[in-house]
Amino acid sequence: MAPARVTFPRMRDFSELSEREVLALAIANEEEDSRIYADVAEGLREDYPASANVFTEMMEEEGEHRRRLLELYRHKFGEHIPLIRRQDVRGFLHRKPVWQVRPLGLDAVRNLAESMELETQGFYRRAAARSTDTSIRALLGDLAEAEVAHERIAGKLVAENLPGPVRDEEDRAARRQFVLRVVQPGLAGLMDGSVSTLAPVFASAFATGRSWDAFLVGLAASIGAGISMGFAEALSDNGSLTGRGAPVVRGAITGLMTTVGGIGHTLPFLIPEFWTAMAVAIGVVVVELGAISWIRWRYMDTPPLSATFQVAVGGALVFACGILIGSS
User: Which tens digit of pLDDT belongs to each residue from 12-21?
Assistant: First the structure.
């Protein structure tokens, strides 16, 4: 028995659509946009209630557009509406579903709303330009203008629901969440990888005097530490009480940055000439410690001199341990 052939539906050009299909697509678009705004509002409500109100009102606007399109469609073509979606027509943007994007960032959803309004406005203008039915052309033209007005409405809603102090507070809350969910686990991994692997890498380098041996030890230590730190971070807190986000994501960030921190000063030992490799590795360590100090100053509000001193002392102690053990 011959295996079944897998066929993929052919996307159609917008110019191939009939007026009935254009209206059906417009109805589907308005329904999808309304549901996207509803998902965004729900995702923002707990942390950013003012922004959630903006998207709730935008959802209601899209619902009104859909109602007007439905009335015209039923008058022209009856009750049955063929299922035509954005993904069936060339030229539309393909967006990742909102429910797959957590946590929602304020700037990201604001940019999403802007791109949706611009795309819908362009769709209605193209559809109106090729329509031969006067009533359809008039409605599509009205909806294109409504999308322009929608941008102004969105601005008005933002002004009403997000006055300066409220927006500033939401932006500060977004920054705090970014620090909790991304910067802190990433910094913990980078510090562990950069500092804790110094001793084994440089101990093996001075003990053997061979670059390759130091590279193998550093590679094993970096990957092992990355796996260990990733699991430790993921299992330490499920994020439900602390608001630190999904444990798998935090664990992945921590594990990756731990490995990166260790690999940085390990790669120079691929240089065959030992003292050249050693000099480059020490230079990389200085850069790594400088990066850690900058992150602590930038995101943790640590004074720059204090951040540099603390990191330098810790790195120097571990580095000295490695040299002493390797030279003994």
Answer: 777 788 888 8
- The pLDDT tens digits for 280-303 are 998 998 898 888 888 888 887 788
- b/e code 117-141 from CB counts within 10 Å (16+ = b): bebbbebbbbbbeebeeeebbebbb
Provide the CATH number for the domain around residue 122.
1.20.1260.10
**How confident is the model at residue 159, as a pLDDT?**
59
Q: Is 2 a domain residue? A: no
pLDDT (average), residues 117-140: 82
Whole-number Å distance between alpha carbons of 305 and 294: 10
Long-range interactions of 93-97: CB distance < 8 A, separation 24+: 93/119, 95/36, 97/39
Domain count, the chain: 2
Would 81 be classed as within a structural domain? yes
Q: What percent of the chain has pLDDT over 90?
A: 11
pTM: 0.52
Tell me the residue range of the domain where 246 lies.
Answer: 180-327
**Are residue 211 and residue 116 in the same domain, yes or no?**
no
